[in-house]
Amino acid sequence: MTLSTPVPATKTPEGRDGRASRRPGLLAGVGGQNISLIGALVVVLALFGLLNDNYLSLSNMQVIAEAATITGLLAIVQTVVIICGGLDISVGSQVGVASVVSAMVFTTTGSGAFLGMAAAIGVGVLVGALNGLVIVYGRVNPTIATLAGLAAYKGLAQLLSDGRAQGYVLNDDVFVFLGRGKIAGIPAMVWILIVVALSVHLLLKYTDIGRNLYAIGGNDTAARLAGISINKYLICVYTLIGVVAGILLTARTGSGQPVSGSEGLELKAITAAALGGAALKGGKGGIGGTLLAVALLGCLENGLTVEGINTFWQNVAQGALLVIAVVIQQRRSGERAVGLPH
Question: Global pTM?
C-alpha cells in the first residue's frame, strides 16, 4: 500500500489580467525561512567584514567552511531525525566514541586508515541503532533516550581513552587528505558535506523514502494505516547519526577526541536544523535551510573569535538563536501559548 498525500490548493494573488503574480511564486520557491536566513547571513558577513579587513578573505572563508563541516553533517542528519518526529541530543557523544575508536584501531593495528574508518562507521552504526531500538521497542521518549545516550556515550569515550586524546593519524595520507586536502581549491571535507547534503536532499524530495519520512513526522497514525513500517524507519534514521562525522573529526584534529571537539555538537546541530525550518514536532524541514543555518552559525562563531570576544558568548548566541527559531515556529503554527487564553 502506498501513501499519497494530496497537495492542498493555495491561493495566489492575481493581477487584473487574471494571471497570478510572479513574485509570490518566486518567494514561495525560495521559502520565507530561507530568505530570512540569507538576510541574516548577509548582515553578519557585512558587520564582521567592516570590523576586520581579513574576515572576508578567501583563507578565512575556507577556515569557516572547514570548521562548519562536522556541524553541517550532523545538522543534516538531525534534520532528517526531526522531520521523522524524533530528536537526538547524543550526537556529540556518538562522534566522540567513533573518533576515539577510529584512532585507537588505526594506531594499534597499523593496518592503515581504512580499518580505522571502518571501525568508526561500525561504532556509529552500533550506538545509533541502540538509540533507535531503545526508542522503538523500549517505548522511551526520544529526548529522554538520547539524553541517556549523551551521558553514556560520553562516559564510554572517556573510559576507552582514559580521558585523553588517542593516537596520531596525520602520518597517514588518507587522513591527511580528508583533514587538510583540497579538490579544485576547495577543502575535501567541504566536498564531503556537499555530496552528503545533495544526496539527502534528493532522498527527501524525490523518493518514496523521503515522502514516508515526512508522513511519519506529520501524522504517524495515518502513516501506520498507510502501511509504512514506522519502527524500521526510526531505527534506520537514528543509525545514520555520527557515522561520517567521527571519521572527519579524527582527520581534522589528528587524533581521537573523547570530548574536546565533539562536546556541544548536539546543540549546534539542533540549532541549525531548527533555524533552517525543521519543525521540532516533525513533518517539516529541508536541507537547504539547514545548510544556510550552518553557514550563519559558522560565520557568527568565527566573527566572534576573530574579534576576540569571549568564547562563552558563542554558547549564549547559539542558545538565543535556538529559542528564537522555536518561537518563530510556534508563531507560524498558530498554536495558543501555554497558559494564555485564545
Answer: 0.83
